[in-house]
Hints:
Alpha-Beta Plaits; homodimer; 12-stranded mixed beta sheet; 24% strand; 14 helices; Rossmann fold
Amino acid sequence: MRSRIGIGLIGFGTIGTGVVKLLSQHQGLLRERVGVPLELVKIADIDLERPRGVKVKPGSLTREATEVIHHPGVDVVIELIGGIEPAKGFILEALRAGKPVVTANKALLAQEGREILDVLRETNQELGFEASVGGGIPIVKAMREGLVANSYKYIYGIINGTSNYVLTMMETEGLSFQEALTDAQAKGYAEADPALDISGVDAAHKAAILATMAFGRYFSLSEVYVEGLEGMDLRDIRYAKELGYRVKLLALIKGGPQVEIRVHPTLIPSDHSLAKVDGVFNAIYIEGDAVGPTMFYGQGAGEMPTASAVVADIVDIARDLLKGVRRRVPPFSYENLERDVQVKPMDEVVTRYYMRFTAQDRPGVLSKISGILAKRGISIESVIQKGRRERGTVPVVMMTHEAKERDVRLALSEIDNLEVIGGKTVLLRVEDGRRRC
Amino acid sequence: MRSRIGIGLIGFGTIGTGVVKLLSQHQGLLRERVGVPLELVKIADIDLERPRGVKVKPGSLTREATEVIHHPGVDVVIELIGGIEPAKGFILEALRAGKPVVTANKALLAQEGREILDVLRETNQELGFEASVGGGIPIVKAMREGLVANSYKYIYGIINGTSNYVLTMMETEGLSFQEALTDAQAKGYAEADPALDISGVDAAHKAAILATMAFGRYFSLSEVYVEGLEGMDLRDIRYAKELGYRVKLLALIKGGPQVEIRVHPTLIPSDHSLAKVDGVFNAIYIEGDAVGPTMFYGQGAGEMPTASAVVADIVDIARDLLKGVRRRVPPFSYENLERDVQVKPMDEVVTRYYMRFTAQDRPGVLSKISGILAKRGISIESVIQKGRRERGTVPVVMMTHEAKERDVRLALSEIDNLEVIGGKTVLLRVEDGRRRC
């Protein structure tokens, strides 16, 4: 029986510092829960000078990640530098050195996960990635273990805090997209370069990971349909509200003969639990065929919430090491990630739509628009048209019944070519949520 | 390596039937996730005649629980008969026969858990009890593993669906307590004898289990302060609403040098996430020192949600059996359940209060009441007094600042003896929630 578990950390940034703090603050508590001490043995970072407000043992710092990986006292390697390289190289090197790995690196898993999975199988090693989705929310464990008896029907996630903060500020404070983003940056919620968050790509990384666990075959970022918040107009948030909806950047995953995996701004009913998730909070709604609707809620980012997830993974692996077992739970929930599951092409997706047309203020426009929609079999549920002119044009807002994406796109390209249309039509998708929760 | 995991079921009632259904429906899916088939070998129930709408293998039914326990093909024993005896005897017999056990039996764990724990340790066996709290919500796993890096500060649970349904119907439909309860019974949400639910004892059982996992020493039902919904008056729900609160039967668990474990009707702010949990849904809000506020939401009862939790436990144990390990995770989160943790006596609890006095409609009453409160150091935050007479008395509603329970009780017993008071004062506690989530 091992008398301790040695931890090596690569990446002493915000989350890394949180992990160091947590291991130190809860040394006693963790020992009571795990049975032996978790001991931080070695830390690598390119910057060893920056003050981080935590004490580490003298001699434990290094600029060389390989010193961490190959240190004989290191039983588990934590990768917290993010990005593809050199993170991937370090993870593969650690696995091949016979050491289990914990990471928060969603980009790597969603883009190069196939290679990581191959090496995991080849080395019969473990990978913890609880921190890669939903920050401190133990959603990976819930999907992989807690809800293991379920076939997943619907997974809806608000899994990017920055974009949710921006949308919340637009709606509640009436800020423009740019104003809200600037505010998020000023408050430290958004990176100097917020592109990954705002474009929806960060949420898509996470959606790919959730879908892989749900359906048992590897999904990469390239299979996720993504639209971001760029160009989001306050007017659409207001019209949505008038119609009883809120706009959220939602990751939608749906089971079926062909699965759907998409991330885009989405109208959801104001009384759905997800609609009430504001600011930087994350929430994942999961509907399983046995459990019904469930929701998991918490802080999706930040030093200590994310560190909470990293340390949970360390404990999970420590418990396996202490019992001398490996891969007790398959990293992505299935023993074999080769299930025959296809992604439904976006053109085939059927959903409800919100459309805002920029119409010339002339008679007959509404009839032309609705005529083209009708020709494609798209039926209109409700219309808002108000007298208010904007430089000779009026906004016409329509909610449709269920329609096929391809038909909607064809109809809109025809409509946008009409002489009476003064600008590109805004198209948003609507999700009514399944059973309310 | 085992080629299958054999399951024995004691109790073929609602949940037991759900487990049988789930194991059959998801035979293939579970095999893909676990690696080997989960095979239902033997089922015991006193009633073998009742049609249950599921097919079982011929010869697998018996009236004798011991046949299940000692069947050589049974690797895991599921106890779903509930209550203290004979459930306890069966569980102890299974453990002593070297078989891990899965149960949904909160009453047993909260009342006789000490003995079960002793036998678990003595036999070095496992016990799964995910289904005992929050139905299908994987809250036991979350507390024991997903949030293992946290010291628990606050746990607030809406963990009895029947009482939450009753309160929801009172508030939204304006029903009296008795009308709402009759409705719950008609809809099948409440038992013919709803005493355990309405009295708060069912929630207290669950609170004792959550506190045991949170703080690392066994807490029994007798250490939980309990008040139920009996006599809940619609007027108080309405006044609470006017003050910006909703009334929920809340389980409150607070960390500290002395911990608090109590269940009672509680005013919580209307904009707190817990306040929006309606009907038969359950939710558990957990604030950990690292993760911050989190919330877990879902159906707290019912055939399939509860079966989802039972089968998750079966899978957890199956994975241990397949790897040949035992007690990889301590059943109640700590290796040793002997931590020195005291429960704060209810008299010492400090909280805010809602009081409704039944005052004679005479001058000077308010000054008498507030004088007695002031003498005990209880300061008033707000008062609602309206002209409306009820048989010569008027309701006077007060919200206090934080005060000590003992002082409040002493003050109320003095006030209730005043000649100008026409009935027993209604006392409810207020919880502002910690950080909103």
